[in-house]
Design brief:
Layout: E1 6-11, H1 12-25, E2 31-34, H2 36-40, H3 44-53, E3 58-61, H4 64-70, E4 78-81, H5 90-95, E5 99-102, H6 105-118, E6 122-127, H7 139-147, E7 155-161, H8 173-188, E8 194-195, E9 213-215, E10 236-248, E11 253-254, E12 260-261, E13 266-271, E14 288-291, E15 294-299, E16 307-310, E17 322-326, H9 332-339, H10 343-349, E18 355-359
Parallel strand pairs: 1-18, 2-3, 2-9, 3-4, 4-5, 5-6, 6-7, 7-8
Antiparallel strand pairs: 1-10, 10-13, 10-17, 11-12, 13-16, 14-15, 15-16
Helix pairs in contact: 1-3, 9-10
Length: 361
């Protein structure tokens, strides 16, 4: 048991099954595994190791340190670093055979110079911004490279990529707009394989197929098709131990600022999980847990290390027993809805005090 009296179980078989399903939905090219933010909070190293063993040969992370942390476990695989090439980091990329995602003309120039110094072509992914307005080449940057392809000399372009901003909303016209902008940009640039779809983009149909898709949250069970049944397998089970059960009378309150008051005699279980563990404060008064398959509401405010649940009518809910927070009775997306956020934030907020168990290693 972890220090917080809560346990997190991650099913690597389910993650693998999700990767295979996504691969089947994207026949135009392979599907990369996005394992940034420590594999969306679930453990980049065991996830990357398992997917590599199953045949995945493309991975993406956000930062250089995330890439070097998994390099030895995915020998020869492409590891793309989405946040780009920071000044002075070129030797580290070369030493670990990493692929920077180049987000601007300046990064292209520095990687070209590094290639010249290394005496060989260096791998790169070129990122074209088609509407996110975050990272990537803007129209002027694309125009500069189109006008002078020599600016890309020394670069072994693995892919030209973009990122869809609204792929989870199939009717959003922005999807088609971005697809067309990307197609025009690729036509203007030297020929290279393309990478278009993210998790939800894979489900937009063949028009969004490309040489490489990049799957993130869907690998970890988050629904890539909101509003429809989740095609992905759930991959995690989070539970917390009951520390104490209090017997309240009508009128007794619970937690900070007395935001919940018992309307009748009640049994309140205090569980060993709080917002320091990623069980968000915004879940206060909105979330449920499950005990023996029965929903038990979260009452009062979530505090740093503790949460309280109304277990009236659950005689087996005693100190030492477990409450299920995420699992068969409640998905990551359901918790996200209660918290007013998305499944991505729920996953990446999961704390480090949990005891973690991996199935299918």
């Amino acid at each position: 048991m972890g220090e917080a009296g809560a346990e997190l179980t991650i099913d690597l078989d389910a993650i693998t099954a999700n990767w295979r399903l996504l691969s089947a939905k994207h026949p135009s090219g392979p599907v990369a595994a996005v394992v940034k933010a420590n594999g969306y909070g679930l453990g980049a190293l065991p996830i990357a190791t398992r997917l590599f063993r199953e045949g995945c040969r493309h991975f993406f992370v956000a930062h250089l340190g995330e890439a070097t942390a998994i390099r030895s476990s995915v020998p020869g695989a492409m590891i793309g670093v989405l946040n780009g090439l920071q000044p002075g980091a070129e030797p580290a990329y070369i030493a670990a055979d990493l692929t920077p995602v180049l987000n601007g003309v300046g990064e292209v120039a520095r990687w070209r110079e590094a290639s010249r110094d290394a005496g060989r072509s260096l791998p790169a992914v070129l990122h074209v911004d088609t509407g996110m307005s975050r990272l990537g080449l803007d129209a002027d940057g694309v125009g500069a490279l189109a006008a002078d392809p020599g600016l890309l000399d020394g670069l072994a372009l693995r892919y030209v990529m973009t990122h869809l901003s609204s792929a989870e909303c199939p009717a959003d016209p922005g999807n088609e707009r971005q697809r067309r902008i990307f197609a025009r940009a690729c036509a203007a640039l030297p020929p290279a394989p393309r990478s278009l779809a993210n998790s939800s983009g894979i489900f937009l149909g063949p028009d969004y197929g490309s040489d490489l898709a990049r799957a993130g949250a869907a690998l970890y069970g988050v629904n890539p098709t909101p509003g429809a049944a989740n095609p992905m397998r759930p991959v995690l089970h989070l539970r917390a131990r009951i520390l104490q059960v209090r017997h309240l009378l009508a009128g007794d309150s619970v937690g900070y600022n007395a935001t919940w008051t018992a309307g009748c005699p009640s049994r309140i279980a205090t569980a060993s999980i709080g917002y320091a563990d990623g069980w968000m404060r915004s879940l206060s008064g909105r979330a449920v847990a499950h005990f023996d398959g029965r929903p038990v509401p979260l009452v009062g405010r979530v505090s740093m290390d503790l949460s309280t649940f109304d277990v009236t009518g659950c005689p087996g809910a005693e100190p030492g027993a477990w409450l299920e927070l995420i699992g068969p009775g409640q998905s990551v997306d359901a918790v996200a809805d209660a918290a007013g956020t998305n499944g991505y934030e729920i996953l990446t907020s999961l704390g480090q005090r949990f005891g973690r168990t991996y199935l299918g290693t």
